[in-house]
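Summary of Year 1 activities. Much of the first year was spent building the evaluation harness for sequence design. The harness presents a backbone, in tokenized form, and records the residue chosen at every position. We chose the following record to illustrate the format because it has been used consistently in internal testing since the harness was completed.
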């Protein structure tokens, strides 16, 4: 347990402003966003700078106190909350929220790990640049959490995952040393690229304290459309058609089933019905261009023509104002909160080759409906990245442990067959830590364990997560 002497030593490093010890104040830090995990600690530390993080980590290394790094606590797999032993402390990076510098000539921005993602996006826009990472939790998730989970979101199709948006990072190692890796280089072939070890490590290899992020030219034209399609195969075909016609101008391509829309409209009644008829599947399409007079709508309409003629596209609305575009995005972004309000479901954040998505949905739906006739499949996601959120809801009841296990088996067995992944963007955390051992080879797991043992020999960084 964390004793009073330890807390006093931490207080000497971070002062009163950096300590949370009251049980009521600690509660939001130990409960995860979904309410699936409730951990225990008697100390949350909120350092004000990298030096304080390093000194606290050094103290933990000396005394063997485990550390759980935390950003906005919006993670989906219980990675940012401690276990129930009460042995670990939480280090929350949220006070470290400064934008340290912006280098426009180098199209780069250096930010502290506790910066809220939306604040980073806004800072980029203020200097006519664009930071493309975008997800529904952007108002509260932090850059440190985004990089540690290698977050995905809605613009991966064009700009890649979080790790693709980073030039350098600063981090504190599990021994409490500071790695000054804030280089803003686009080329640097000098051995192992360590930043890529820390990114996606979910806080198990060190604490990210700052990062140099890539900036991009700001789009001057945007076109947002919702297209109803006959089935997921038609959606995949449409993706290739639009990519062929518009190349990199296609920045978002999001699939939503009608079930998802029904939940959004039920729980957020201000959401308008997008079409006069109900359609089983729709895709949200976003096109952007840095050229002011780019004829995005016309090119999209032309690209859609063959799909309408073949019956694969059945209806479409193209937003004619920013407000309409925002309303379409709101619809998509309200899917996870609406699902949460609907009740607990068995969640799968999965990926597969785009060419197998239609087969996956068809076989997955058939197998789940046969095993659980009373349940409802909730399917949506970033299909332009081969990433589905493929969840199973049991109306009016909590899924039992047996139902969860059987649903996971059905989904993960099919994914193994199709060479997919059991975690596309949320990570492993506590939730998939054991499951992953069934899907990675021994060679791969041994390499991961060797890296963990080499960088964190005392095992104090976020124990019980990932491995
Ligand atoms: C409504 C909603 C929608 C979402 N949509 C998406 C989506 O589209 N795509 C997606 O990828 N994710 C999505 N997420 C999941 C979540 O927002 C992301 O995983 C996000 O990147 C987590 O950031 P955070 O600051 O909240 O991290 P936290 O939840 O605090 O932590 C996440 C993990 O990172 C570690 N960590 C946090 N900060 C640091 C640090 N500075 N150094 C080292 N380790 C650290 C934690 O220990 C934990 O393991 C969504 C979540 C919500 C609630």
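For this record, the design step produced the sequence shown next.
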């Amino acid at each position: 347990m964390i004793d009073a002497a330890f807390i006093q030593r931490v207080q000497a490093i971070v002062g009163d402003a950096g300590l949370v010890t009251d049980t009521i104040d600690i509660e939001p830090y130990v409960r995860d966003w979904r309410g699936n995990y409730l951990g225990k600690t008697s100390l949350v530390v909120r350092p004000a700078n990298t030096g304080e993080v390093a000194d606290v980590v050094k103290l933990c290394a000396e005394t063997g106190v485990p550390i759980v790094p935390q950003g906005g606590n919006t993670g989906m797999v219980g990675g940012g909350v401690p276990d129930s032993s009460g042995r670990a402390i939480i280090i929350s990076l949220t006070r470290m929220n400064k934008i340290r510098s912006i280098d426009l000539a180098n199209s780069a921005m250096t930010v502290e790990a506790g910066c809220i993602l939306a604040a980073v996006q806004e800072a980029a826009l203020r200097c006519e640049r664009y930071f493309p990472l975008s997800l529904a939790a952007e108002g509260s998730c932090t850059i440190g959490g985004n990089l540690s989970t290698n977050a995905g979101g809605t613009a991966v199709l064009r700009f890649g995952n979080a790790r693709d948006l980073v030039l350098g990072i600063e981090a504190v190692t599990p021994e409490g040393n500071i790695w000054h890796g804030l280089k803003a280089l686009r080329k640097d072939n000098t051995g192992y690229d360590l930043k890529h070890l820390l990114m996606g490590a979910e806080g198990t290899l060190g604490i990210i304290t700052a990062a140099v992020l890539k900036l991009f030219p700001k789009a001057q034209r945007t076109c947002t459309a919702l297209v109803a399609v006959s089935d997921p195969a038609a959606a995949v075909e449409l993706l290739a058609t639009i990519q062929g016609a518009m190349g990199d101008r296609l920045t978002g391509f999001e699939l939503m089933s009608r079930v998802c829309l029904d939940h959004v409209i039920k729980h957020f009644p201000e959401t308008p019905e997008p079409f006069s008829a109900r359609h089983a599947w729709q895709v949200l399409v976003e096109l952007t261009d840095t050229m002011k007079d780019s004829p995005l709508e016309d090119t999209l309409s032309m690209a859609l023509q063959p799909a309408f003629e073949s019956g694969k596209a059945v209806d479409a609305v193209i937003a004619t104002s920013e407000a309409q575009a925002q309303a379409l995005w709101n619809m998509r972004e309200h899917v996870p909160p609406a699902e949460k309000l609907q009740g607990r479901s068995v969640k799968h954040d999965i990926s597969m080759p785009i060419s197998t998505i239609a087969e996956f949905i068809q076989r997955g739906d058939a197998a789940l409906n046969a095993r659980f006739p009373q349940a409802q499949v909730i399917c949506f996601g970033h299909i332009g990245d081969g990433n589905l959120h493929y969840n199973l809801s049991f109306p009016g009841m909590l899924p039992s442990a047996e139902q969860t296990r059987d649903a996971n088996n059905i989904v993960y067995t099919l994914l193994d067959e199709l060479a997919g992944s059991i975690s596309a963007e949320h990570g492993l955390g506590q939730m998939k830590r054991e499951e992953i051992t069934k899907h990675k080879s021994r060679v791969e797991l041994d390499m991961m364990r060797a890296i963990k043992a080499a960088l964190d020999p005392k095992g104090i960084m976020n124990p019980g997560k990932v491995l």
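The longest strand covers residues 221-229. Quantitative recovery figures across the full test set are reported in Table 2.
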